[in-house]
Automatic annotation (TrEMBL):
A molecular-function term among this protein's GO annotations: methyltransferase activity
Compartments where located: Endoplasmic reticulum membrane; Membrane
Protein name: Methyltransferase
GO biological processes: methylation
Entry membrane topology: Single-pass type II membrane protein
Group of enzyme by EC: transferase
Main location: endoplasmic reticulum
Record-stated family: Belongs to the methyltransferase superfamily.
Organism annotation: Gossypium trilobum
EC numbers on record: 2.1.1.-
SUPFAM superfamilies tied to this protein: S-adenosyl-L-methionine-dependent methyltransferases
Keywords: Glycoprotein, Membrane, Methyltransferase, Signal-anchor, Transferase, Transmembrane, Transmembrane helix
GO annotation, cellular component aspect: endoplasmic reticulum membrane; endosome; trans-Golgi network
Superkingdom in the source lineage: Eukaryota
Length: 532
């Protein structure tokens, strides 16, 4: 089940306290939208991937840069033409589809070309024999994470995506009692679509080229159809190489026919939004209760762009304890003011095209990302996995934004423990993000250091920020002034240039703002072995 490729808590020998140098010849990435088509070869030096993908019309080398023709194995006419084919089958234009997930994304051409249609896709793929397809995606300026469907849930809440997509993604959907499609069902919004192209779809015309027998492919498709029916999905169309299923808008009919059609049992114990090292289960995630068959479970979402600032159903329904509609509106306005203040101080944030990939380490309701929605940027909204924090990632997706769960801290039980006041205290470490080095232009950290105070070393978090930040990338950290003074001492020796500025309300606020830029540096040459 590819368990060895999935995320895991690091072993003691995997913990590194060091900075990652940029590769020789590294250059500032192309600006969006040019970056959709081009990337510098030195920035992602993986020749093996280049050789294989050149034959599939995915990547071409032109001097010092790659060019992405926008094609792929299953869309040789280009991603735009392939998306046009999908648009003829389901409506991609009316704003009802905003969030998508691309499983086994390759170099993320599908997600890259959806952006011009106001649809934002989370592209994910494992670190596999192709090494760094996700790194290519991020270099292009497309949302992506390293990830694999194996034995644990994907790091997203339930009912997050309007569309899930697989184009020859090589995931065995019909195996393991359909557990992978059950996970797709968990993260798919009521009424959402699952799109499948590639084996076994249209096997009648492709089986020879796929080097498989017609009977084998026909049987695989039959098994997939059976699993989809057991999840109460309806196959709405199959045309050419594309097949599309739709998830029901509620589970009234599904529950009524469960025994007749031998459907999976409904999950009883697990929180549907709990997705950090949570094991996959062969049970169907129940949708919120509805009173009649035409009602949409969890609430109707407005179409994009209205849904960005409309009060999300998880808040209006009262299911998110402690957050009201008024809180949401106030938070949205607060971050509009803060984003404007940032741009007044950091001219690079105000400069159109300077940044593309943004990371918000403590996103809460996604207000910072919403304030930048008209800029040519995208934001990865990270919601820390902490017992004392609200699980707000579902709200972020209901707004039509992207995000992931992330635990910047975990109790590392195999490290030495100490006695303190007759209590056993474990030494802790911070956990890395599922991304490659140098994948974000800008990082925003609101109170993240106060949140993890006394849980892990401050410098561990800063080193992880340094790892994922591109050379000459920028950071904004909001926190108590005493915390920022400690941070300033550390970043001074990390070759960041930083300064502390007053809060937007004035100098009398204890919370201050640290603006910093990571300097471009290269590692010194390695000494000969006998000198080491």
């Amino acid at each position: 089940m590819l368990i060895y490729r999935q995320r895991h808590c690091p072993e003691k020998n995997e913990l590194l306290k060091c900075r990652i140098p940029a590769p020789y010849g590294y250059k500032v990435p192309f600006r969006w939208p040019e970056s959709r088509e081009f990337a510098w070869f030195a920035n992602v030096p993986h020749k093996e991937l280049t050789v294989e993908k050149k034959a599939q019309n995915w990547v071409k080398v032109e001097g010092e840069k790659f060019r992405f023709p926008g094609g792929g194995t299953m869309f040789p006419r280009g991603a735009d033409a392939y998306i046009d084919d999908i648009d003829k089958l389901i409506n991609l234009k009316d704003g009802s589809i905003r969030t998508a997930i691309d499983t086994g994304c390759g170099v993320a051409s599908w997600g890259a070309y959806l952006l011009s249609r106001n649809i934002i896709a989370m592209s994910f793929a494992p670190r596999d024999t192709h090494e760094a397809q996700v790194q290519f995606a991020l270099e292009r300026g497309v949302p992506a994470l390293i990830g694999v469907l194996a034995s644990i849930r994907l790091p997203y809440p339930s009912r997050a995506f309007d569309v899930a997509h697989c184009s020859r993604c090589l995931i065995p959907w019909d195996n393991y009692d359909g557990i992978y499609l059950i996970e797709v069902d968990r993260i798919l919004r009521p009424g959402g679509y699952w799109i499948l192209s590639g084996p076994p779809i249209n096997w009648e015309n492709h089986w020879k080229g796929w080097n498989r027998t017609a009977d084998d492919l026909k049987a695989e498709q039959s098994r997939i159809e059976t699993v989809a029916k057991s999840l109460c999905w309806k196959k709405i169309v199959q045309k050419g190489d594309i097949a599309i299923w739709q998830k029901p808008t509620n589970h009234i009919h599904c529950k009524a026919t469960r025994k007749v059609f031998k459907r999976p049992r409904f999950c009883q114990t697990q929180n549907p939004d709990m997705a950090w090292y949570t094991k996959l289960e062969k049970c169907l995630t129940p949708l919120p209760q509805v009173s009649e068959i035409k009602e949409i479970a969890g609430g109707q979402l407005p179409k994009w762009p209205q849904r960005l600032n409309a009060i999300p159903p998880r808040i209006s329904s009262g299911s998110l304890t402690g957050v009201t509609g008024n809180n949401f509106v106030e938070n949205t306005e607060l971050w509009k003011e803060r984003a404007a203040y940032y741009k007044n101080i950091d001219y690079q944030l105000a400069q159109t095209g300077r940044y593309r990939n943004l990371l918000d380490m403590n996103a809460y309701l996604g207000g910072f990302a919403a304030a930048l929605v008209d800029d040519p940027v995208w934001v990865m909204n990270a919601v820390p996995v902490e017992a004392d924090q609200l699980n707000t990632l579902g709200v972020i997706y209901e707004r039509g934004l992207m995000g992931t769960y992330q635990n910047w801290y975990f109790p590392f039980l195999s490290l030495p423990s100490i006695k303190f006041n007759d209590s056993l205290v474990f030494l802790d470490r911070c956990e890395a993000m599922s991304t490659y080095p140098r994948t974000y232009d800008f990082i925003h950290a609101d109170s993240i250091f106060s949140l993890y105070k006394d849980r892990c070393d401050m410098e561990d978090i800063l080193l992880e920020m340094d790892r994922v930040l591109r050379p000459e990338g920028s950071v904004i950290i909001r926190d108590d002034v005493d915390v920022l003074l400690k941070i300033k001492k550390i970043i001074d020796v990390m070759q960041w240039e930083g300064r502390i500025a007053d809060h937007e309300k004035g100098p009398h606020e204890r919370e201050k703002i640290l603006f910093a830029v990571k300097q471009y540096w290269t590692a010194p040459p390695l000494a000969p072995k006998h000198d080491q």
